[in-house]
Design a protein that fits this description.
Blueprint lengths: L7 H21 L6 H17 L5 H20 L3 H48 L9 H18 L3 E8 L11 H15 L5 E5 L4 E6 L4 H19 L3 E8 L6 H18 L3 E2 L1 H6 L1
Parallel strand pairs: 4-5
Antiparallel strand pairs: 1-3, 1-4, 2-3
Length: 282
């Protein structure tokens, strides 16, 4: 249940008013000897709801408080009419307190969720180059390490692609490689899935592409397509190397090293895409 349409101040004021009304009904309409126990039970409801120890704890605490207070009323009150009035007051008061406590804590939970999403968005924006949308180089290894940990935990596979300009087919002299890498980086981000990541590494410039939950065969198809589309779009011949977790390496540095070796092999041998099996037989 979302409460975004209720202003926070209004929700807090309503919650406070409900608590005061509940306290009035319990202390004034109920037996004077039960005023302190009644307030304590009211506090238990509020604290239980705020704790959010499990789903529905506010409702459970409210029901238990009502039953406890009504039982105390019947134990200490000799007159039937007063028992009835006090019991009704308890039910109404605790129900109000419990209902608004649940609403209030749900509003806090929604606010926390929104703040978490905002933090993730800020982190994502901080990690990305504003010009191309690619991951900044200093964050590439961090994302790769996170994917290694996630894939190890869930027993998934993924592939790392290193893509650069072929040494065997140098670009035309009039081509500005900085502009080419900017355009290609933007195109790769647009073409790949949102879960995949692209980073531009320097010296020499090349792309590091993280294809999540993608085994070697799938990575080969995707990479072949990207290399061909890049050649058609820019007139520059790119080549690529692929390393797959966990077959080729099981840590970020090892995966980068294997992908770099495959890229170098592809560049020297004029292969468009290379991978560990080609290196072993090459």
């Amino acid at each position: 249940m979302r409460l975004d349409f209720i202003p926070p101040r209004l929700l807090l004021s309503t919650f406070t008013g409900a608590l005061l009304l509940a306290a009035y009904l319990i202390t004034v309409q109920g037996p004077p000897t039960l005023a302190l126990p009644g307030i304590l039970l009211l506090a238990v409801i509020v604290l239980a709801a705020i704790s959010r120890a499990f789903v529905g704890i506010g409702a459970v605490a409210t029901i238990l408080a009502v039953l406890t207070y009504v039982a105390l009323v019947f134990l200490v009150t000799p007159f039937a009419d007063l028992r009835f009035v006090a019991a009704v007051a308890a039910v109404v008061g605790y129900a109000l307190a419990g209902f608004f406590a649940v609403l209030f804590t749900q509003s806090l939970a929604n606010l926390e969720s929104d703040l978490d999403r905002a933090d993730l968005l800020i982190e994502e924006l901080t990690m990305r180059d504003p010009l191309t949308g690619t991951i900044k180089p200093q964050f590439a290894r961090q994302l790769l390490a996170e994917e290694v940990a996630r894939s190890r935990r869930y027993r998934h596979t993924f592939s790392v692609v290193m893509m650069g300009v072929s040494e065997q087919v140098p670009p035309p002299p009039e081509v500005d490689l900085d502009t080419v890498f900017t355009e290609v980086g933007r195109a790769l981000v647009d073409r790949l899935r949102s879960t995949d990541k692209v980073a531009i590494l320097g010296n020499p410039p090349r792309f590091l592409i993280l294809l999540v939950e993608t085994p070697l065969e799938g990575a080969k198809i995707i990479t072949e397509r990207l290399v061909e589309e890049t050649r058609i779009g820019t007139g520059v011949q790119f080549c690529a190397g692929i390393a797959t977790f966990p077959d080729d390496a099981v840590d970020p540095d090892g995966l980068i090293r294997e992908a770099e070796s495959a890229l170098q092999f592809a560049s020297i041998t004029n292969e468009r895409v290379a991978y560990s099996e080609l290196l072993r037989h090459g």
